[in-house]
Structures are given as C-alpha cells and as structure tokens.
Amino acid sequence: MLQLIDLHKTFDQPTGRITVLGGIDFHLEAGQSAALLGESGSGKSTLLHLAAGLDHPDHGDIKINGQSTRHHTEADWAEQRRNHISLVFQQFHLIPTLTVLDNVRLQARLCGRMDPDYEHQLLNRLGLATLTHRLPHQLSGGQQQRVAIARALLHRPPLVLADEPTGNLDEHSSESVMALFVDLVREAGCTLLMVTHSAAMAAYLDQRWRLHDGTLSREGEVA
Amino acid sequence: MSGLASLRRLMWVGLTLLSHYRRHPAQTAFLIIGLVTGVGIWSAVQIINSHARASYAEADQVLGAQASHWVRASDGGGVDPDAYIQLRRAGFTQLYPVIETRVATDAGEPLWLIATDLLALPRSEGSIDASGAGWLAMIQPPYQTWYPPELAESLGVAPGDTLTLSDGRTLPPAVPQSQQQQGRRLFMDIGAALDVLDRDRFSYLAAAGLDADTARELEAALPSGLRLEPNRQRLDLNQLTESLHTNLTAMSLLSFAVGLFIVFNAVRYALLSRSPTFHTLRELGASGRQLSFAILLETGVWSLIGTGLGLAVGFGLSQVLLPPLAATLQSLYGAVVGADILLRPSTWLLAWGITLAGLVFALAMPLWQESRQSVRAARDLSDRWVRDRTARRRLAWVGLILALAAGAVYSQMTTVLVGFVVLGLALFAAAFCLPVVLGAVLGWTLRALPEKAWQLRWAFSDGGAQLPTLRIAMMALLLALTANLGVETLVGSFRTALTDWLDQRLAADLYLQRDSLTREELNLPADADWLAASHQRVGLDIRWRGRPTEVRGLEPEAPDSRALPLADSSNELSLWYVWDTDNPVILANEQVRHLAGVESGQTITLSTGLGDRSFEIVGFVHDYGNPYYQFYLPRGEVERLWPGRAEPQGLALWLSDRPDAEASAEAALLAAGAQAGDWIRQAQIKTVSLRIFDRTFAITAAMNGLTLGVAGLALLTALLAIHQQRLPDYAHWRSLGVRYREMGRVLTLPLAVIVLLTWLASMPLGALLSWLLIHDLNVLAFGWTMALDWDWAPAIRLGLLTAGVVAAALAVSLWRLHRQLPEALRRLGGQS
Predict the structure, then answer these.
(1) How would CATH label the architecture of A34-43+75-221?
(2) Chain B residues whose beta carbon lies within 8 Å of the beta carbon of residue A74
(3) Domain-by-domain residue ranges, chain A?
(4) Distance from CA of A107 to the nearest CA of B (A)
(5) Rounded mean pLDDT of A138-150?
(6) How close A33 comes to chain B (CA, Å)?
(7) CA distance B50 to B249
(8) Do the beta carbons of residue B603 and residue B648 sit within 8 Å?
(9) Which backbone phi and psi does B284 adopt, to 5 degrees?
(10) Which of B36, B713, B27 is nearest to B358 (CA)?
(11) Is the model more confident about A145 or about B100?
(12) Any chain A CB within 8 A of the CB of B831?
C-alpha cells in the first residue's frame, strides 16, 4: 500500500545542513498498521509529511498502491489526499464554523463517498450521535479528536496517516480514543501509519519502527 | 536603584513586543500604510485649507495689508475721480483708488482684474514694488498688464500679447510678474484701467492704516453719495469660502477615520498575533501595567513615525490637490490661491496629536479585550468568531446611541458645522450597526440553505469566521461608499440644477456681450422677421446688509422674465410684472431668503441714487451658485432709481423659426455696427459654464477617489490579515484534498456577499446623506435650494468600482496565500 524508497531529506539551518532522513526504505502492506517511534526532532513528522505529499523529498520515491508519486504536482497530491489518504493530527483541525456533523462529513463529501449507514455506525461508536449539531468549541478535547477520527474514516480511505493523534489528550482519554481509533481503522480495512513517541500507543499497532539519526529500523512485530 | 530596575524591565518588555514587527514586515507595512494614508489625506487638506486662508490674506495685500476701510458710493456706482482728488487735497493721503472687476476672455474664461495707482499706494503697504524701472512703462501708454505666470500659461498668453476680452476690448501688452500679492488676478495701472475699460469711476477707494479718529474725520469730509466702510474683503472671502473648507475638512476627517480603521485593523491584528508573546510575558511575571505601558510607548513611537511620513505624503498630496481647489475657489468665489505651500509648525503638532489620539483609540479596545481575557482563552483563537458576536452587538448599541444623538442634534441644526456633526453621527451610526446586520444576514442565509448545498453552507459559515477581521474594513468601505454616493448625488444634483438654471436663464439664442452694444444703440428693428423677442438687461453692484449685492433690471415682458425660476412667491407677484410705483415690490434670489432671513411679504430697504427706498419682497428666484445677494426690478425702475449708474448687462435675442434666422441676425448685427465675436451662441455659454462647473468639482472627485482608495487599502489589509491569521486552517483544508478553486469559492463567496450587502446598505445611506447635504447643509452654507436628483448610474459605477477594488485586493491576498501555503502545509503537524 505504502512504499518509501531511498528517501532523503535535509534542512538548511543557521548551523549548517542537517540530514533528517538519510535513505529511508519502508513498505507497509494494505490493511496493516505501523507505529513510527523516535525522539523529538528525529524526523518522524517529516517522514509522515512526505508520505502525505505535504512536503517533498530531496531524493527517492513514494509509491501509493504501487503508483509512483515522483512526478506528482501539488494538485496531484491534493487529489491523492482527497481520495486515498486521510490525515489525523494532534491539533484536531476541525472547521470551527461547521457543526460536528458537517465536519464529520466534509472529506466524504469532497470525494463523493457518503455512506449514511456507516456514518450512523461511526457516530454511535465514537459517542458523537448526540453531539452532531454542536460546534467544535462546544466539545471537549477528546470529543474533538473523535470528530477528527470520524472525518478521517467516513469515506474509508485506503491509507490513514496519523501524527500523534492523542498527543493533546490526557492519559485516560488517550487510551480509550486510541483503542477505538485502531479498531475502527481495522474494521474499515484501512492501512495506518502513525507517528508517536509513546511506546504504549505504539503497542496498539501491528508494526513498530524507530527513526534514529536519519535511518529507520524495525523493532519487531506485535502479535 | 529599584526605579532603574523597573525601567530596565519595562525596556525588556517593550523590546520583546517590538521585536514582533522585525519578524513580520508585512504587519509593519500595514500599520505604516494605515497611518500614512490617514494622516496624509487629513494633513493634505489641512495644509491646503490653511494655505487658502493665508492666500485670502495675501490677496488683501494688493489693496493694502492695512486697508482698514473702504470709501464706496452709497448707490454702488463707484467713486468719481474728482471726489478722490478732493479728499487727497484735504490731507487724506492714506487713500488710494482701486478698480476691481470681473472680465471674461473672448473664450468666456472669467478673470479678475485689479488696478490701482502705484504712486498713491502708501509706502507702508510694501506690497507692490514701485521702485523698479518697470513701473514707468506700466503707467504710460501703451501700458502693461501684469499676469501671474501660471495664469498667463493657462491662458496661453506670451509676454507682449494683448488679450481680447469678451466685449471686444483688448488689454495692454502682457508682462509676466511674480508679485505674490497679485494672486491669480490681472494687475494694471488705474489710469490704464479707466482708459481700457472705458470707465469714469473707481470701484472704491482704499484707506490704509486709518485710526478711529482719522476715520471719523474722513467720514465727515466725504462728499454726499459716498460712505466709509470697514474693509470686508477678507471677511467676505472667509464667509463665502467657509462652507467649502468645512466640507473639505469633513471629507479629510472621513479619510482619516477610514485610515484609522486600517490602523485599527493592523494594531488589532498585531496584538492578536502577539497574543502568545503577550501572555508568555504575563506568565513570566510582567505585570498588566508594564505591558500596557510598553504598548502605549510603542504607540508613541508609531505616532511619531506616522506623523512624519504622513505629513511628507500629505505635503506631496497637497501639491496635487491644490490646482483643483484653486480652480474651485476661483470659479465659485473669484478667490485666488497662490502656489507656494508652506508646512506650518501648528500643522505638525496637530497632526501628531490627532495621530496619537487615533492610535490610542485603535489600541484601547483590543487592549481592553486582551486584559479581560484569561490567558487560556486568549491563547485559543478557535472560538474567536463566536466571541465576536458579543462585540458586534456592543457595536450595534453604540450605533443606535449615535443614531439617536444624530436625531437629537438634527433638530437643533443651525450652522454648517453642526450639520456636519449630524452627518458624521449618522454615518458612524450606520457603520457601527453594519457588522451586526452582516452577521445576521449570513446567519439567516446559512439556516435557510438546504443540507445538500453543503459547499454553500460551508462558505456562508466561513463568512462568520471572516467577519471579525473583515468588519472594520467593511465599516470603512461603507463610510467611503456612502460619502462617494452622497457627494456624487450632490454634484449630480448641482449639475442638473445648473443645466435647468442655464436653460431658464439662457433661453435666448444669441447674447451680445459687448456692454456698449445695447438694443437702443444697435437700433434693431422690432419688426425684423428674424427676431422673435429681445431682452436688454441692466444692473449695478451695491452692498446690502454688509455683503456684496447685485441689482438687476429686467424687462418684465421678455420671455425669460416671464419664466423666472421661482422658488417661492406671494400672491402679489403680479405687481412685479405690472409695476405700480405706489406699491414698490421686488424679487430676490433665494440667498436673500436663506442667508439674510427675509421672507416673502417682508419689506427691505435699498440705498438708491434717490435715497433709501423700501420694497416688498414678492418672490424668490432660484439662483444657482451665486455667492451674492441679488435683487430684481423692472429695468425702467433701476434706471430711474440709480440714474446713470445702471450699466448694460448684455442683450439677449430670441430668433424666429425662419430657417435663415441666424444668418439674418448675424447680417443685421454686423450692419448695425457689431463685430464678429461680439455675440455668443447659447450653446457656447452652456459649454463654458459646464466646463467651469466640472472644474469646480474636480476637488470633490479627487477626494472621492482618495476615500475609496483608502477603503480599498483597508480591505486589502483586512484580507491579508484574515488569510495570514487563518493560514493553518487553509493548510489543513488543503491537507484534506480541497482544491484551490473550491477553497477560492469558500473564501470569495462570503466576501462577495458581505461586500454586496455593504454596497446595498450604502445606497439608502448615500441617499440620506445627499438629502441632508442638499436640503439642509446646502441651504445653510450657500443659501439656495435645488431638487435631489437621484441617479442609479453613480451607484452602479461605484458598485463596479468596488467590485474591481475587492477583486484586486482579493487577488493580491490569494496570490500571497498561494505562495505561503506550501510552507504552512509543512508546518501543519509541527516538527518531530
């Protein structure tokens, strides 16, 4: 589903050029989930951003569903994200002027894959069924993150990329939201790559990879 | 020691806050643009207003800086040279003769001509340099006419040229002169003027530096028919031009207010984006007082920068605005304005004071809002648009209070200044109510849209998020549009009034301009088959109630006399047409009614050649744009009451409907002694009049353009602020796969609706503004009325112009957004 081939990324800093990713090779099969672990500043988010087309590598290729994205324009990437990739961030990034329901439906509407039954099911599973007409600022942090998850999954995207999705929540909320998130991703048949610095959160996923000094190494499969 | 430490802490807080501008040059630029535009326009008008007033004072110099008194003929007929010689011989050497008259070139261009006796001019005047060799040529045939260089240039007169006047006379050879006191007037020796203008009397005698005792002695020594008056020249000009200057000041203050909105936006945005710094400083122990003091200090720095740059721009702008203003003053009042502009220290101080006040106002509200918020709430911007609803409601309350105040002041409106206060209150009331209306309309539309129209719903809901930053810009736009529409309607109504007035006043086909060519002298046969009717008018200038006044003698049976544009008349009007010496009645222009407070049926007294005479007012005539009082009597009465004083005022000829009537008329006129160029066709006069009119209102058009330009800038800064502030939101939309055109629709549609609503709101407000200007302020200022001529064309033109301005501002902002989005996308999830 997602293949990263010899990815390189460097940044220019006042102190000189820093190599963040020095030739990353990575492959994630459809329906699998993987956690990307690493210290702060190790390049986890950068790698995720490259995979989503939010940033571009200096060298290497990203294949999604076997298709190379080497020659993708910005507009191609936008289409890719619209139809095939969902992103979940630590900051919930809900649209503050839209209701919960409109926020949940947004990406499904954009790619034209509305599914009322699944929507009903998702809202119930995420405990949002009674909150659909509220505005984001009227929700707690945990509720807002569940809205972001519902929005990411409603159209059943082939690939979900998550960047510290529970980083803004307390420990108890983190665990319950993460368990639900992983369950829903699996039920929807999506492939998940998630950045986290928490081993506990990583434990929910099929694979764990660690990024250190610009190189990626697999830590072992979880049963 | 502790004082030094707290000063150091204060410096540290201040420098931390100021460092924001170093990292955000765009915000710095907005702030400077706002300050410079606001202060620039205001100071430009301030500079030209004070410059014009100084020019009036300078204009008096040619008649004597200390020309404290004038000797005039009671009947307005001028002063006999013999009387002047007699008074000089009696020891009144302070007296010098002046001829001041309005002439017209053969192209119909009006000019002021002034003449005096250089040798009689007291040394204390020091105004005209009579010591050089040049003056001898001036006072000897063939004489000289001194032209201010810019006037000579605009008339196309080269040195040595002789200018031909509309009555066929030619002026002595031209000599360009830079006598500052001459202003834009032609200057001649008095002997030359008597000769060339074929006059036998001076306009008046000026007396320089006359103390009270000498004035009493002079008054006692005056021959009968002459009287001593204090010099009212300066007073007259100030009286006449006060309204125009008040108008300009109001327009400049409006521009300043609109500029202030830009500053308000920029300051508010800068404070908002500095919120994290602000609250980090608070968390680190900086007190609210230290922060407030640091921000006030920053305000002081900005006010100095704004004043300096604003005055520099204002000075440049005043150079651009001066020519149209000078044209306006010359056309309307014959007032002359010199070309050298000076920046006075008082303007510096006033500009700084007003900038400081404006900045404190722009900072006060955001500071107050900041101080009331908890640190957590201030850090969270997601619900700012919800909190803004409360702010909008508060603004609406202020608007309502302003509207009530406008209503209350309106009932007490007696001066032009109070009139402008009412206008200001009404305009700002509407501006303050606008955001709540915009929010309500967006909300209603959102609720009315069906679930399926999700993109529209998204767009309209996004309007709510744009409104907090956009509302200030929309208030500015509303003010600019309303002012534009109001003034455009006013000018359009003026133009219609002028055209109607010209149609009524210039009903005849041909006008003989040479005053010496009267009907009697031409001996035109009354039964000529090319001639349908004729009207020989006479007139003279007098003073009534301390103001220049014109008495016109009309022939009651003439077609234009039968169709006088009456504003109001009494039942006794017929007495004017069928003159009855026992019941002397008179017509007056509206100015007499509105400025002198005389009503129909009342009696007025005029000084005539036969002594004081009383007349009952039986009607008022519309008299467009005349700054003077005017009275109308039958021609015979004028000639009887002011024997030998009434001068011909032109002969009007109505042609018959014979196909060759015009050719026959011209042949007959030539045969009767007239020369080609002595007559002018009606259409020519109308063209010249309308050209002068358009030049007169050039200043208004310039101010309109500037105000709208400033509003466009306010909008641009608001859009840039919105897009900068919401960049993470837009990056997130893009991360969801939202296409640029979808993003453009969501951002543009609510803006288009908001601008459309603002434009729609400006129409009734513009109509109200023009109604107040025409029905109240115009009457208070000028003393004449006209009908409000509402035209949709300016409204549509303004709408299209606004759409263009909005599209340009949006394009700039979206282009910037497009460039910033890739970086914003990279920053979307932070770095780890």
Answers:
(1) 3-Layer(aba) Sandwich (3.40)
(2) 822
(3) 34-43+75-221
(4) 7
(5) 89
(6) 20
(7) 11
(8) no
(9) -85, 0
(10) B36
(11) A145
(12) yes
